[in-house]
Amino acid sequence: MIKFLKDLLGKVIDFVGTLVACSVIVLLGTIFYNVVSRYFFDDVDIGLQELEWHLFACMFLFGIGYSLKENAHVRVDVIYEKLGQRAQALINLFGTITLLIPISLLIVYYGYDFANEAYLSNERSGDPGGLTHRWIIKGAIPASFFFTVLCAIYVILEQLYILTGGKSADEKTQGETL
Question: Which pTM value belongs to this model?
Answer without folding.
Answer: 0.80
